[in-house]
Amino acid sequence: MSVGAVHVIILNWRSAQMSLRSAEAAVIAMEGIEGVISLIDNDSGDGSFEEMSREAADRGWTAGGRLRVLQSGHNGGFGAGNNAALRVPTDRPCDLVLIVNSDAFLEPDTIARMRAHMLAHPAIGLLGCRVVGEHGNHHTTHFRFPTAASELEDAARTGPISRLLARHVVTMPMPPVAAPVDWAAGAALMIRRDVLDAIGGFDEAYFLYFEETDLCLRAAKAGWPTHYLPDARVMHIGSVSTGMREWTLPPDYWFASREHYFRKNHGRAYAVAAVLAHLAGLTVRRLRAIRREDQTMPKGQARALIRHALAPSRPRQIFRPGDRP
């Protein structure tokens, strides 16, 4: 395995041109760095794979194996798609993996900065970076792990409760320098390959959302902390594949992932407590909304939480440590 070699993975689902734009930024950011870029289609079924294969070859990216276009063959979600790319052998064995969203665009020095930080701090298992929007606005992408207390605070959204539970608020202030965090979002997340092999990659029971939270938690339990590096940046549009900006209520798979996270990592009783805490917070918020004639209350959220809390446990289908390239 080459020390400091980087395997960049970009997962596409029905957004070929956006993914190619992300790949172009990755090609530039990988200049002078040993490694490979995997642009993998997650069984889009819309011609994305053929389009990306053709354009990548036309642009000269596939020459010499610098970039490869892959097909997962099955849309099992975000984690499953990235696991599929990890299973395909590479000509350049890499000890660092960089997960990049298809609507995220690395700055030219982002990979070099993240790589240097990981090499200088071998005890770090995962590394997130600063994420900004199209207009330079900061996106919070470094967090504390969710708890029953954070569920209450997040649902209530009221000053007194937030102040009381300040140490449990999931979002964290922006650190001025590199610092440890509980978990970092997968818009651009660097992971040691040894960590993925040790803990089993992404848990494929998550279709979308909570998979990187779960990954960071399992890594932390295995002795591999996550850090956040504000000096490395990526521009992220967000929600291109998921349509999240148009949500009035998260889809079923968000609630299913949330429930799976709490059950798997804390047990069923704690998962029930987290639901009850969230419902209590929603009650507080609803009372405040009635007084203020607030029309922004999410409709159907309580029903969705209860429905998924009563559902049977989801089966786990994870990346096998033995499937290492």
Automatic annotation (TrEMBL):
Signal peptide: none annotated. SUPFAM superfamilies: Nucleotide-diphospho-sugar transferases. GO terms for molecular function: transferase activity. The keyword Transferase applies. The keyword Cytoplasm does not apply. Keywords: Transferase. Gene3D superfamilies: Spore Coat Polysaccharide Biosynthesis Protein SpsA, Chain A. InterPro entries: Nucleotide-diphossugar_trans (IPR029044). It holds the Pfam family Glyco_tranf_2_3. It comes from the Bacteria. This is Glycosyltransferase family 2 protein.
